[in-house]
Amino acid sequence: MKAISVLLCLTLLMGCAQPAKDASTSTEAATPEGGGQSSVNDDVSQMDVVKIAVNSKDHTTLVAALKAAEYVDALSNAGPFTVFAPTNAAFDKLPKGTVETLTQPENKDKLRTILEYHVFVGVLTENMIRDGMTLNQVSLDNVTLHNQGGKLSVNNANILGSARGSNGIVYIIDEVLLPPDKK
Amino acid sequence: MEKKTVYSLMVVVALIATVSLLQMCKPQAPSSVTGGDAAIKAYVPPGKYDEFYNIVSGGFNGQMSVYGLPSGRLFRIIPVFSQFPENGWGYSEETKPMLNTSHGFIPWDDLHHIALSTTKGEHDGRWAFGNANNTPRVARVDLKTFKTVEILELPNSGGNHSSPFITENTEYVVAGTRFSVPVGDKTDVPISTFKENFKGYISFISVDPANGKMKIAFQLKTPGVSFDLSRAGKGPSHGWFFFSCYNTEQAYTLLEVNASQKDKDFIMAVNWKKAEEYIAAGKGQKVKTKYAHNTWDESTHTGVSNIMDEVLQLDPAELKDIIYFIPCPKSPHGCDTDPTGEYIVGSGKLAALIPVFSFTKIQQAIANKEFEGEFAGIPVIKYEAALHGEVKKPGLGPLHTEFDANGNAYTSFFVSSEIVKWNVKSLQVLDRVPTYYSIGHLSVPGGPTTKPHGKYVVAYNKITKDRYLPTGPELTQSAQLYDISGDKMKLILDFPTTGEPHYAESIPASLIMPNSTKIYKLEENKHPYAALGESNAKVERKGNQVHVYMTAIRSHLTPDNIEGVKLGDEVYFHITNLEQDWDVPHGFAVKGAANAEILIMPGETCTLKWKPLSTGVFPFYCTDFCSALHQEMQGYIRISAPGSNVPLKFSTGKIEEAVAGAAQ
What is the pTM of this model? Predict the structure, then answer.
């Protein structure tokens, strides 16, 4: 993120009609962390699953967690994804301080595992959800889906709604899904 | 929360910057990531040669393409499975048989993978093999002429994806089906009887070491799963072959969900030396089937298609010790053997770890019968018993792994769009670089051999988006070249590629360049319709077929005036290029040709069939700029009414008296 801002600022300062010499200066100034697919300028295409979360005022904690885990670009890529997106209120149900601890750099792997438990590679639309079906998530753990008379839930979380993105589907849920303890 | 505020600020700054940029200037470069010395590393000065040939699959274009590394310059597109109007491949009479199959003439395919021939596990620069994923075939390209010289169809296969990977001395090229299908006498069955009736077949194609000629040596009848990719063992594991399998759920609908139910699928280990023993002991079963075998004869410059009717099959469910399954998380895609032959890397494309299996441990597990059970009659080795170890949290969606000569592996990650370098023995992640965007295959020069050349890794990406100037909804494909000579990988070049590259290999130029054919010798031209000299040019009528034995040399065609051809005739222009000079092809095109033009290499004879649809005089000409008088290299053919009495005649340079009347 920082690199992008710096690069953009540099580009701005140098103006647009840069000759080749300036371009090489700017490449030298850039860090090896280039912008991933999330930094492609495109306001015409359908929003991807990350942009859906970013544009939701109820998912700021999730977005912050995705950024801390450096998963923003991954979820902007081709996918396809089914993302279970806990709301801010869902994160608030966790013991106090949990989110702050998880977003510390030293806990990145742990945070990643939790986020991976919220993502299935494949698009599972509502009409495909059968009661009791399992999905093996990116973390390699299973979640169980429920469909009781059209009322959808995943593990112990209720599915509050869904949004279709360009690279997948987002299900808004009211609990954070915690992967089973493997110890 | 302070962190959050900082982030928000940055986002705001970035947004403002972005918006301003958008308003100020239209063509905006994507974020650049190269180091300052990148340009010099990828730069090949004018007139200098690249260090490597990069032979790249063309995916849906059905071709191979040839680039130079490190420049990324495109040298050639080699037509393989798809017609190529640019030079007449699949349109000329000589090349049409090369695209014949048991389904008739198939003018296209989907070429995914390249295998360069090896001797003792090292590149020998002789042939490049390519697979047809759609109508299952394997092709062989001669690296002296860069021409497709053989195409072998594979019976009992639904789609040849797990191919054309090769053994250490190119003893075999393998072909595993991506789609299991019902075969034999019982093919008209309900799709829902998948488990009962669908089978996967693996073909082992032997390659004649003297001339490269392919033959289906045997097929293994395997359970109905999807075979994705494969690699041969090498060194200590020579004699074995490893295949990744997915859809072990045996789903036949909505595989997006139903084929990723299990947390583990399989790597299938095949002891092909054992299969050879069974065949020698007469355990093979000859089965009737139908497939095409097409070969190119360089002396007649002509392809011949033969329909074959039998293959030899072995059933590993009965012949127990040919194959074993090893559990592998999760829908494994790449299945790559390291240069020592000891380690087999399975890349579960939906997994967030990479299991590395040990050949020694696999052998021990088999000897000690450490099996967790059977799958469709085949023993399944216990995961832990075969496992060397796992690379933990390497990235998301590992696909393929290549190797350098220093014990390091380079794995592509589609979902997280990056290349990760890790040490094969220690399983430690050493470095990671992003790719732009969504990498599929990757290639290190010599990466699949026993002696990798290292130096570079090329990313073949699936998504291009903003990497180049936009060209509407469809963009060129994007490859990226990374320097891997240091500890850290460094992006040094983006280069666009044609078709959709899947796998590619790179080989030192020194192994190819000295052997490259410059001309075909005229005295070796045994084409039945060759005119080896202008004095042999002629026009012959055989019923309604008119055969024109034509020559081309700077800068005229002989004959260039042809009369006496009638509507309803089929005209065969057999053009012999009399040039014996490197890089002087001639082209041939005639007005109204419904197929293509043709390019004729020096010393070669090619035939274009043309059926005139109206009377009149039709020009023909050379389409490949050959000399200062290229524009003069032309002629006319007169087409008369069916009952006309115009005599058949032909000439070049003959000035006739002008005659009145159109009926002459």
Answer: 0.90
Single out the residue in B464, B495, B515 at which a domain terminates.
B515
Whether residue B510 is found in the same domain as residue B543: no
Kindly report the CATH number that applies to the domain delimited by A43-173: 2.30.180.10
- pLDDT > 90 fraction of chain A, expressed in percent and rounded: 72
Residues in A 76-95 with any Cβ partner in B closer than 8 A: 77-80
How many domains does chain B fold into?
2
CA distance B351 to chain A (A): 6
Sort residue B231 into left (φ over 0), alpha (ψ -120 to 50) or beta: beta
Q: Is the CB of A126 inside 8 Å of chain B's CB atoms?
A: no
Residue that is last in its domain, among B515, B530, B555: B515
CB B148 within 8 A of CB B199: no
Q: Which of residues 13-42 of B touch A (CB under 8 A)?
A: 13-14, 17-18, 20-22, 24-25, 28-36, 38-39
**Which residue in A74, A168, A70, A81 sits closest to B416, CA to CA?**
A74
Check CB contact under 8 Å for A112 and B393. yes
Does B448 reach chain A within 8 Å, measured CB to CB?
no
Q: Inform me whether the C-beta atom of residue A73 falls under 8 Å from chain B C-beta atoms.
A: yes
Q: How confident is the model at residue B249 (pLDDT cuts 50, 70, 90)?
A: confident
Asked whether the beta carbons of B450 and B235 are under 8 A apart, the reply is yes
Q: A2 pLDDT exceeds 50? A: no
Q: Delimit the domains of chain A by residue range.
A: 1-35, 43-173
Regarding whether B291 and B247 lie in a shared domain, the answer is yes
User: Around Cβ B233, how many Cβ atoms within 10 Å?
Assistant: 24
CA–CA gap between residue A97 and residue A102 (Å, rounded): 9
Supply the CATH number for residue B139's domain: 2.130.10.10
How many CB atoms within 10 Å of residue B545? 12
Average pLDDT on A114-122 reads 94
